[in-house]
Amino acid sequence: MSFTGPSMSSGGSAARKAVNFGRTYVVRPKGKHQATVVWLHGLGDNGSSWSQLLETLPLPNIKWICPTSPTRPVSIFGGFPSTAWFDVGDFSENAADDLEGLDASAAHVANLLSTEPADIKLGVGGFSMGAATALYSASCCALGKYGNGSPYPAKISTVVGLSGWLPCSKTLKSKLEVENEAVTRAASLPILLCHGTSDDVVPYKFGEKSSVTLKSAGFQNVTFKSYSGLGHFTIPEEMDQVCSWLSSNLGLDGSS
């Protein structure tokens, strides 16, 4: 469904170009609307495929918003255009982060959530590169600002990342430690990470390390689930875990 790796800066020449996002697909709740979750696809994919899967889940109280990322030149494809939330250059853990692309995508997520009613709980999740963008959004939510320093407006209640990794992991702890409010927000934000041990695209160690980094940075409510033999895709067992975790953390149990 997608192909992804740690990101690389896309360079400064395109710094102020407009970012054009693709089509957004919405799965409306079949029952009482209690939560809205923005779900982000992986590299080379679009919002449609995930909307079709999410529509089948037994979560009648969730509204799913499945946007499509911009189509942009992707470094790991030799500059060939692909749908991508940010530029991807290298599988090395030492690769630079495309902060501009991450900020733009995190802002798009926040904007999609901005029109939801005040009593609706908000979440963000994703697969692969979408998971990385979701975790970056979680960092922005805790810090109260984007990487460029602009205020982050959304109040996220839950975050889910499947087969992904944590961008900007090396600086997260030091940024959180200087603000008491950020520490408080991080400590109270539930995060679910799932990763297959046989993932040949985003190695399992990236998912595992992301969990450790989040916890050490102050995100105290992090759940990490490993799936033996699972590659870079999802399976019903994993989606069952997502359903039960979301129901519990969004207070949807027993609701109709």
TrEMBL record:
Residues 25-248 form the Phospholipase/carboxylesterase/thioesterase domain. SUPFAM superfamilies: alpha/beta-Hydrolases. InterPro entries: AB_hydrolase_fold, PLipase/COase/thioEstase. GO terms for molecular function: hydrolase activity. PANTHER family: ALPHA/BETA-HYDROLASES SUPERFAMILY PROTEIN. This is Acyl-protein thioesterase 2 isoform X2.
